[in-house]
Amino acid sequence: MSISTTDAPNTSAPATTAAKAWPLAALGALLVWAYLPMLSVFSDKWLNDPQYSHGLLVPFFSAYLIRRAWRAGGYTPRPLPVIGAVLLVAALGMRAVAGSMLFHQLDAASLLLSITAVVLAAGGWPLLKRTGPAIGFLVFMVPLPYELERNVGQPLKTTATVCSTFFLQTLGQPALRDGNLILIDEVRLGVVDACSGLKMLMTFAAFSIGAVVMMDRTRFEKFMIVLGIVPIAVAANVLRITATGMSYVVFTNKATTEFLHDFHGWLMMPVGLALLALELWVLTRLVVAPEPPSGPPAPVPPPVPGPARVRVADRGLSPVPA
């Protein structure tokens, strides 16, 4: 008498997966502990600077992308421990340089490189291909360096001042531009560093890139969405400055103008997202998505021979197919 064991549950696979997962979890916890000083510096920005408050949500969205990629199906791991070890050594060198220069953004780059090294050592290129978008998205939790804010913010301030002055003149206001200052009769509206729109650009870029990763669109549509990040962010900032200038012209109460100033700043992100939705709506009607094949092509039936006809020859009768 024989007993068949084909229907017995296979409990070794989950145990094997768990046995391989706990060293990675332990190494990830060790990385968090090692980079805790840098994360504490950034957390102060996330909690106290409204322009970087989206940094608190970035790790959770990256975790969701990893879970989404994990549920997509199995993959064949091809560990590359040598390449992972080399990248970890490079990350340690970056940490040493960042610590000597107090360059926290370089320290954050070494953290991303360390995560990439762990992924390559554990699963190789197949695992990195799945987790790459989640790792790359962590860039948006890093605050901008001061030098970048100063050098890039000045052209953005100039653009915002020129465009806002034009819109105010279009609305019938006697607006004049004096550097980064907008003069409307007795109103002096200064476009300071906080009004350059650079920090809002980073927040809006995080939302837009997240939408590109999540949506199922053509590559052309995704490229156009990425290409429209800067114009949409600049347009939202220009609308904010224009609305603030009109508020200072219409209202004279200081408490009211201060409230409207903050309210218009809060509206920048909803306005940007509305413009992004408008761009998606336009792209949906301009781009025709290729239709998937409905099924395999129908087989071509073999030719049916026609009736035979008889031809009278000199030496007898011979049937000739039609």
Q: Topology of this protein?
A:
Layout lengths: L11 H23 L1 H13 L9 H13 L10 H21 L2 H34 L8 H25 L4 E4 L2 E4 L2 E4 L7 H17 L4 H9 L1 H22 L3 H13 L1 H19 L21 E6 L2 E6 L1
Antiparallel strand pairs: 1-2, 2-3, 4-5
Helix pairs in contact: 1-5, 3-5, 4-5, 6-9, 7-9, 7-11, 9-10, 9-11
Describe, in plain words, how this protein is organized in 3D:
The chain has 322 residues and is mainly α. The chain is 65% helix and 7% strand. Strand 1 (175-178) and strand 2 form a beta hairpin. Helix 6 packs across helix 9, helix 7 crosses helix 9 and helix 7 (198-214) crosses helix 11. The longest helix is centred in the middle third of the chain and has 34 residues, at 104-137.
Low-pLDDT residue intervals, each spanning 5 or more residues? 1-19, 312-318
Q: Mean of the pLDDT scores? A: 79
The radius of gyration computed from the alpha-carbon positions, rounded to a whole number of angstroms, is 31 Å
Order of helices and strands: HHHHHHEEEHHHHHEE
> What class would the helix/strand composition place it in?
mainly alpha
- Terminal residue distance: 67 Å
Helical residue percent band:
55-70%
Q: Biggest sheet: strands, sense, closure? A: 3 strands, antiparallel
Total strands: the figure is 5
Work out the helix count.
11
Overall geometry comes to flat
**Hey, roughly how much beta strand do the residues contain?**
5-15%
Query: How do the strands of the widest beta sheet line up side by side?
Result: 1-2-3
